[in-house]
Amino acid sequence: MISVLIVEDHPIVREGVMAVLKAERDIDVVGATDSIKDGLRLAGRLHPDVVLLDLKLPDAGPVDAVSSFAADGRSIVVFTAHDADEEVLKGTPAVEIAKAIRQVHAGESYLSPRIAAKLVKGVSQPRGRSGRLSARELGVLRLIAAGLSNRQIAATLSISERTVKFHVTALFNKLGADNRAQAVALAAERGLLSTTS
Predict the structure, then answer these.
(1) Which of 45, 55, 101, 115 is found 20 to 30 A from 89 (Cα to Cα)?
(2) For the residues 122-148, what does the mean pLDDT come to?
């Protein structure tokens, strides 16, 4: 059984996700809250396998939010309903939310393809801590945002998995990120991933 903590400040969204996940036999929602502060307190007490985390919460920016929960090695599914398209979360099939939870619990990264498509639309020459991302690094970032593993990225770009790891390390350094979820959160926070056309 995969235990899940939901951290989402919109009551309707939070309750809707809880209802969706209750139908999954291998997923148990052990808690839900509307803030990072309460979420960290609950996580420390309940020890969930996965934290389902809204990217936009009032008491922390996306980078701080991801970093806070990732600090103890917790698996995180980052999701958001702050997009101008109010149907982003409503339009996400229940099976996809459950799939995301199972995937990160298995040690992989995941971001909803629908949200990822909106995030990577309009990405242009981001500047990070150590300069611009190369065209290849930008391509790797897009695929990370789409939830692909290093192996899948290698197959997609027709390069070796070792080369993918090199590019991932380089873009992490340029963005100042420690992991994949944080890289996407940093890019979003800095306006490097646009949701507008």
Answers:
(1) 45
(2) 65
Residues 6+ apart with CB under 8 A from 173: 128, 129, 130
Gap between the Cα atoms of 137 and 41, Å rounded: 36
The mean pLDDT value for 156-184 works out to 85
Residue 135's pLDDT band (cuts 50, 70, 90): confident
Burial class (CB in 10 A: 0-12, 13-18, 19+), 49: middle
Q: Would the pTM of this model clear 0.85, i.e. be above it?
A: no
- Give the 3-state DSSP-derived string for the chain, with helices as H, strands as E and coil as C: CEEEEEECCCHHHHHHHHHHHHCCCCEEEEEEECCHHHHHHHHHHHCCCEEEEECCECCECHHHHHHHHHCCCCEEEEECCCCCCCHHHHCCCHHHHHHHHHHHHCCCCCCCHHHHHHHHCCCCCCEECCEECCHHHHHHHHHHHCCCCHHHHHHHHCCCHHHHHHHHHHHHHHHCCCCHHHHHHHHHHCCCCCCCC
Delineate the domains of the chain, giving CATH numbers in brackets.
Answer: 2-108 (3.40.50.2300), 117-189 (1.10.10.10)
Average pLDDT over residues 118-145: 61
